Amino acid sequence: MSSRRTPSVLAIGAVALLALAGCTGGNSANNGNSSDSAQSLVIDTAFSIETTDPGHTYDPTGNMIAKAMYETLVDFDGSDVSTPQPGLASWTQNDAATEFTFTLEGDRVFSDGSPIEAKDVVFSLQRIQGMAEAKPNFLLGGITIAEVDDKTISFTSATPLLQLPAILANPALGIVNSDVVKENGGNTDGSDSAQKYLDGASAGSGPFVLDTLDLSSQVVLTRNDAYNGDEKSDFSRVVVRNVTESATQLANLKGGDSMVAMDLNGDQVSGLGDGLTVDSVPSGQTIFLLLNQSPAVAGDLANVKLAEAIRYALDYDKLLELAGTGAKQATGVIPLGFEGALESGVSQDLAKSKAALAEAGYTGQTLRLQFPNDYPVGGVEFTPLAERVQSQLKDAGIAVELAPAPFATELDAYVGGTEGFGLWFWGPDYADSANFLPFGPGLKVGLRSGWTAEANPTIAKIAADAASATDPTARTAAFTDFAEAMQTEGPFVPLIIPGRNIASANAVTGAVYNSVWEMDIAEITPAG
Fold first, then answer.
1. CA–CA separation, 315 vs 333, rounded Å?
2. Which residues pair with 43 in a beta bridge?
3. What is the pTM of this model?
4. Superkingdom, according to UniProt (predicted)?
5. Mapped to the 3 state alphabet, what secondary structure does 330-366 carry?
6. Helix 472-489 with 457-468: angle, nearest 10 deg
7. What does DSSP say about strands 421-426 and 366-372: parallel, antiparallel, or unpaired?
8. Do strands 421-426 and 218-223 pair parallel, antiparallel, or not at all (unpaired)?
């Protein structure tokens, strides 16, 4: 067995395709608890959460709450998700990356003081495998999980799975107290009914436990007094409030009603003033254009050369002006910082665009650009972005008609592959570049653009080689080859990596973005 830990590279946390709803929260954070308000941490964010059951959660706010309450086998160091680190367990793997052995470290306990054992790990993950409707179910597809002894768990995959440690760091795969969850409806055979219990109580080992949950207004956590890990919090109480308007978040932060605001846009953080700090970084999500390659959808515009023409027609610096602080140009379908990402993107070249346009046989047809008009990503509004794309393409001789629609409506067309020309976004589900292979021909996102494996067998093979690689060096090379080929011959035009801005009062430190769980609440500490 090899003890090599595979570098998995930076990733973004899972993209939640949910509309945000709720109320502002007002001053509710400190109501009824004035005696310990000095030890309370108040966080404002726009909610994307459906449950506090880790086996069902798969939304940004839900992941953040799950991270605070439930520990995972694997962890990351702060905001750096380039290399998986031991969480509850260390691991070894075979050279084929098909067999992994995880060993629980230390004498860790759940919030009721009972020890964490291998049976809890197996139950927690098999419970998710048994719930076909659970959002994180697909993360464990094709994996066999078994207890070796009280401290040891084996994972077996029929195909190479170098990304397994990164997958197991997802908060949705948090370990629950099997005895407690079984007593409250938990099961691994698909008949599980423990979500109701877990929406009102805690069964984890994290630094916090659940106090109250209101999916429309706030989640209140209290310190787990039994916690014996290395992230014990200085705050006895945390209130995470649903504040949907970034302007209200900013006002609350400036007025001292909150300590952290998670959803400020680039303009807002550019002039925060004294007493406030901001962590501004690229989010890892990618906003892109797709050109459908199915003649049944795009007609005579189903030509990959048209994507090339558009790629070189755009002025990316001008597009970035709409994104603000923290945003970067997307250099390819693999974002910057991820394994295999290209160091630089294309620059506007109208001569190349004109040549590709002629090769595509374009004769002035109007492209209908479809996009969601009510779902900003990282502060980037799609309507002004689409208008700027339209204007730049007009200057390059390409006619574009805008066709905005509500997110819920347009999502069906995008997923169903019926958009001829679309403006969308993508973010991976765990911290590994394998998340971007679906852009390849014959794969999930590729098929959404009508791009079959037969349309480009070369890139399809490159994607397959990257997916099955067992040697880290060869794997990185395969991802780089994939990114280069996609940027040359793919039907996608990557545009922007939006920024993510988390602002905090100077009274606290450690409020930084993490692409897997948004923010680690336990890492926030009083300044000084």
1. 18
2. 240, 260
3. 0.84
4. Bacteria
5. CCCCCCCCCCCCCCCCCCCCHHHHHHHHHHHCCCCCE
6. 150
7. parallel
8. unpaired
Read off the tokens for 301: 């515009």
Give the DSSP H or E segment for 279: strand 276-282
* pLDDT tens per residue across span 350-409: 999 999 999 999 999 999 999 999 888 877 889 999 999 999 999 999 999 999 999 889
Q: Are 500 and 295 in contact (CB under 8 A)?
A: no
By the 8 A CB rule, do 501 and 249 touch? no
Q: Are strands 286-291 and 499-505 parallel, antiparallel or unpaired?
A: unpaired
Q: Strand, helix or coil at 506?
A: coil
Cα distance between residue 67 and residue 208, in whole Å? 9
What single letter denotes the amino acid at residue 462?
I
Helices (H), 13-144: 60-69, 118-130
Task: Say how far apart CA 382 and CA 401 lie, in whole Å.
Answer: 14
Non-local (6+) Cβ contacts of 251 within 8 A are none
Residues 222-273 pLDDT 10s = 999 999 999 999 999 999 999 988 899 999 999 999 999 998 888 888 878 7
Residue type, 325: T
CB atoms within 10 A of CB 494: 27
With a cut of 60, say whether residue 88 has pLDDT above it: yes
Nearest to 515 by CA among 341, 320, 323, 286: 286
What percent of the chain is predicted at pLDDT more than 90?
79
Q: What is the DSSP secondary structure assignment for residue 95, as one 8-state letter?
A: T
Q: Beta 152-157 vs 208-214: how paired, if at all?
A: unpaired
CB 204 within 8 A of CB 176: yes
The two structure tokens encoding residue 93 = 């793997």
Average pLDDT of the chain? Answer: 90
Query: What are the phi and psi torsion angles at 398 (to 5°)?
Result: -115, 120
